[in-house]
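It is worth pausing here to work through a concrete case rather than discussing structure prediction in the abstract. The textbook approach is simple: state the sequence, then state the predicted structure, then interpret. We follow exactly that order.
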Amino acid sequence: MAGTGSRRRIAVITTEIGVRSEVWMLRQLAAFSRVEPVLFGWTEAAASIPLPPGLEVRRLGLGDTRRPDLPARILRRLGLAGGYLPDAATRRHIRDALMAADVEAVLCHFAWNAIPVAAALEGRLPVIAQVHGRDVSTMLANPSYRRALAAILPGLDYVAAVGRFQLDRLALLGLPAGHGVIPCGAPTALFGSSPLPERSAGAPIRFVTVGRVSAEKGVEQTLAAFESVHAAHPASELIFVGEGPAEAELDRAITASPATAAIRRTGYLPPPELARLLSTCHVLVQHSREVGGWIEGFGVMLTEGGAAGLALVASDFGGIPDQVQDGVNGLLFPPNDIGAQAAAMRRLAQDEPLRRSLGASARRIAQTFDSRHLAGKIEDRILDAIAAHARP
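Step two, the predicted structure:
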């Protein structure tokens, strides 16, 4: 098989190439040192982000597999696995594309990509899946998807879940023992390059929330919690960073808010700009909550904020407790409990020694979620699978 030097050539499958919210995947690819990735996608994002220099990119050219043709739609309505398992022509197309790339293994991001790829390869190459959030939460409510995933799970060489709760869910579908948790991580050197944030007596405390502007990210709940904080601590500020489908609703709510003068939105920020902004903040807030069955997998922003030395305030939900230890590097609150979220934020606004202690611990704990370190763990599993596949 081809490769650069001793690096083993692998395919990495994603849905859309260059999606801004999947910067974690590009960081993983850039961090690989023992495998040479070839990035495959069904489609390309309209507003894409720069790819790592020298990365080979190929299109599978079948469109988004989450948008089925008529026969597949019928099978999905009937709850049959065939609604998500590829037909013979699609299996042949996927198999030929991967074999033509001269790779030794395939890493699939998201379970919905592992389904068609594993079904197409039928054991010809090792298949490793890294599962994230929606692919093992919301999608599992669909009987057709659930049955298709159950059909391919036993044949996967390794499943890396970004949160512990996901392995429990997949075990109920037949995932055997021996798989593990490997989160996505973040570049802690980039976000931890500035001194720990200081706040002098009487200076404003600046809260920041980073991520998709959507209902499941609890942006309006965070706004409501901040309004309570601001009423008690007028020298407080809130910054929303990100873009998403709920931007218009959030903008209207900010305009109508009694704390509107202390709130701003930045939209999407590239990582270097985000790192500079975080270095001027004090507390990172994340109110993830279940909407339509969605469960948070790994909060990349929590590692970014933690590396910057920010105390963390987050909902006790999904994979977040894997990252936030209550009273150690942050404060946890129950999802949808705006009062508890506001109480945690007020506590940090008035207890500066606690905020500084949590921020220092957050920087230390973030190192365990460094993207280069975690990319090495994924590489270990890929190379193990290649070696096992080569044995007679």
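Step three, interpretation. The first helix runs from residue 23 to 31. The two ends are 18 Å apart (CA to CA).
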